[in-house]
């Protein structure tokens, strides 16, 4: 008789099935609860720039470009107009103070000078004639008064005698009255003549003063025309390099026209272009430096040009501690322009990541160095070398600072 064999519940097949199901369940639970679901991207670490976050002095500066110019540049402007008769010195040559550079010709100026000189000569003659006439009139008046005094003496003697005789009833009263009237008439005539001579003298004196004033002004005018004619010869106001002269023989020059410039080579300065973004932070006395022949030279802002062109403005900087030897006009060089004093800060090197993230986040490597994850950060000030880190990074952490252009929206980078 066959015996029924009872099957075991925990057989090998069932155990295998239950174990597989349990493992699958655990895997699924881990995937949903614990697995890293962030998007990932495999990249080659060798092609990335990885920088270490450090702590140090944050120097707030910008790098600008300066051009070497003479400390002083004297413009040559035509004081008078004319055509170029002779060009004595060409551009690019050294000139001494007072050296003739150009000779101009202007016939109208010469004619005006001659007319003014002729007028001055006429006034001199008029003044001499007036003075001579005044002397003659003085002699004439003196002679007239002298004659009147003589006649008055005679009339007075006659009047005195007739008065005495009239009192004695020796002569007729009419004869006495006639001698009296003759005497009084001569006295009044003398008084009138004296007043007339005084008036004539005052009038002549006034005419002389007027002529002297007119002559003085005319002579000044003659001197002015003479100096104007002298300006037809253009001379170097200072010694230096005649860096340019933009005229040729036979060309016509207008009054006030710029014809060239002279560079004073006794000193140099730097003319610097700066972005208008910094205009409120730039002031006279602000320092900077630049490298020339392996040495650093200190610079200082002395003048700010307020006009903004194409988003930039200019400043002049002088060498505060000596001019570099061998520097030439027109050379350009990068300048480190300080905007503030150095302060302690957490520093992150500048890189291409900023254009992709705006400085709001970065990829930070983990301790193993095999993975980098996104992290939000806050950056502060910036100079050409470093960003100032305000939040999100610690000293010693490593950050990818090269461009993120090819990383897309992935949150984790694997190496």
From TrEMBL:
Key word Cell division present: no
Keywords: Coiled coil
Coiled-coil annotated spans: 117-175, 201-235
Gene3D superfamilies xrefs: 2.40.30.170, 2.40.420.20, 2.40.50.100, Helix hairpin bin
Xref: Pfam families: RND-MFP_C (PF25967)
Annotated ranges, domain Multidrug resistance protein MdtA-like C-terminal permuted SH3: 345-403
Subcellular location: Cell envelope
Family matches, as InterPro entries: MdtA-like_C, RND_pump_MFP, UPF0194_transport
Similarity comment text for this entry: Belongs to the membrane fusion protein (MFP) (TC 8.A.1) family.
Protein's name in the database: Efflux transporter, RND family, MFP subunit
Organism: Emticicia oligotrophica (strain DSM 17448 / CIP 109782 / MTCC 6937 / GPTSA100-15)
Source taxonomy: Bacteria, Pseudomonadati, Bacteroidota, Cytophagia, Cytophagales
